[in-house]
Amino acid sequence: MSTPARIANLPHHNDVPVPWHIQWIDEAGAPTRPGTGIPDGTIDESKFTRCLARGRCWICGELRDRQGTFILNGTSLIQRFVREPPSHVDCAEWAVQTYRIHEGVFCLWRSSRFLPEHHEGRTMWRLIGDADAAEWWLDGRSATFEEALASITAHHALLDREARTEGGWRDSRSLHFKHQRALKFLPEEEPVIYRGYKLERDMRNNWTISRDKRVVAVEDNQDKAMNWIDGEINRIEEQKQQEQAS
Ligand SMILES: [Zn+2]
Description:
Blueprint: H1 5-8, E1 12-13, E2 16-17, E3 22-25, E4 31-32, E5 38-43, H2 46-54, E6 68-72, H3 74-79, E7 81-82, H4 89-98, E8 106-111, E9 114-119, E10 122-127, E11 133-138, E12 141-142, H5 145-166, H6 169-183, E13 192-194, E14 197-201, E15 206-209, E16 213-216, H7 222-245
Antiparallel strand pairs: 1-2, 3-4, 3-5, 6-8, 7-10, 8-11, 9-10, 11-12, 13-14, 14-15, 15-16
Bound molecules: zinc ion.
């Protein structure tokens, strides 16, 4: 992994650069200048304002261009609403590789369209429209289709439970739309080889067998999907045998 020059210029702790937004404290635990004392792992709240006012990168603190990269978990991706300000893309990639952050799978959402929004006394970022690019990370490496899908599914289930208790079916319906919209940004899936046939799945959970035979699967029912796939492969094999016999 290469360290961007902007990151290399940050104050270090134990030989590792410390992100610009992290609070440093002295021996008494009082806030201190970055690079003196130790980083305490919490966020220096003043940095939120400086990102907002000056368009600074959340990770390195230098000015960004129009495009920003957001580090999203499944919930922020579905809602397109996030607390942490945007960063340079290479800074965000460095952060997810170095800090293997909090809760597993992350989507790096790159876009020029986002707006700050006041929400319950805090500034949040509203992501407008689709991303220019989305990449997925887990434990400092690229996340697979399955891992990214599992993360979106888990976060959607939590949000859905909330929506049903608080807002009823209307909220749940709107959440369903947001969930489908999030699935568009999954990474490409590795093909699966099954009974000698290549299986590919698209984002709507439709399976294709070796490009020509399409099987439509129900989103939540993998067993049913596998039954259909087995049935299709049986038919393909029978057809082949008949052709060979004739
Ligand atoms: Zn940066």
